[in-house]
Amino acid sequence: MPLLRASGLVAGLGSGLVLTLGCPAAADPRPSAHDVAEARQQAQDRAHQLGEAEADLAVAQARQDDLASNAERLVEAYNGELVRLENARTQYEQASSRVRQAADQYQQARAAAAAEAARAYSDLIAFRPAAAMLSTSGGFGAYLQQASVLSHLDSERAATLQQLRDAQEVFGILRDQAAEAYETQKKTAEEVKLARDAARASVDQQVQETEKIRHQKTAIAQRLDAARSRVERLRSARAVAQRTSVGLRAGLAVPGWAGSLASGRGGRAAQWALKQLGKPYVWAADGPSSFDCSGLTMRAWQRAGISLDHWTGTQWSSGPHVPVRNLRSGDLVFYGQLTRYPGTIHHVGIYIGRGLMVHAPQTGDVVRISSIWRRDLVGATRPR
């Protein structure tokens, strides 16, 4: 029995030993070197993706800004050609009126010359040789009297003929001027058409490219989200939502301090511009339901009693240039480049104060309040 019990005990220990040895070892809670390396590589990959996405986003935004600036420049070039065409039409109409007046004067001089020619012919028929005249009653004295009359008639005929020649010369000069004015008007009308087509094509391209960029930015944003952790994504989404909410309100609400804008013409122009917030940008539009940049500023100053052209080129020279540090409500703030050709200035806004302006930015946007501080700011003008 003791032997059996011992055998059973040994057997039991053996089975317990077998069971103990057969259980797997507890897992090591610490990550392995491989896990650490894999996690580090994932973090590097995501950081790389994030950098690429942000770079792509910056390129897309820069492309969109370039498209908008180019479209603005061509739209303002079109507005400038319209101003030139109106001036050319006025000059042609004035030249045509002067030609008509000169033609009337020429016809009057021609009629007078014809009458003098008829009189001269009558005098020639009525003239008799001196001997015959001396033989008539009155003698030599009567002949001298008649000769004096004929000499006076000759001087009148000479004056009449000179008037005719002068009227004819003036008529010819004015007729040439009118023809030149007509050709200028015709050429300008063709340039207006070319500028209009270029502006339309540029705006269409801007709309199409902006749509592409919007899709690109959406895809980039998705890549950015994929490169962030869940917490980062939530934080980013919340920040974007806040920025969007603020962005929708920013620039479309009249600031409380704007109620006390400076009085005078500039203040009236700025106050009127503030009432246009939210109206859509439409190129070459000047109200009342939509505007482009120079159309908005033209109408604003029109309400203040100052007439401006619908073109940044001439609005730039509509008054004295004002240092940016001395801006007042209503001053016009310009963007582009300063060259001899004013068409390189492609955007304008109306200053309201505190470094802010009201402007019609670009296709797809609305009249809004924005900061005046942009890299293409070239100066300001106070219309008068």
TrEMBL record:
GO MF entries: cysteine-type peptidase activity
Regions crossing the membrane: none
PROSITE patterns assigned to the protein according to its UniProt record, in alphabetical order: NLPC_P60, PROKAR_LIPOPROTEIN
Coiled coil: 68-112
Lineage of source species: Bacteria, Bacillati, Actinomycetota, Actinomycetes, Streptosporangiales
Membership in a protein family: Belongs to the peptidase C40 family.
InterPro entries per the UniProt record, alphabetical: NLP_P60_dom, Papain-like_cys_pep_sf, PG_Endopeptidase_C40
Protein name (Swiss-Prot/TrEMBL): NlpC/P60 domain-containing protein
Organism, as annotated: Planotetraspora silvatica
Residue span, NlpC/P60 domain: 263-384
The keyword Cell inner membrane belongs to this UniProt entry's keyword annotation: no
Entry keywords, A to Z: Coiled coil, Hydrolase, Protease, Thiol protease
Key word Cell wall biogenesis/degradation present: no
GO biological process: proteolysis
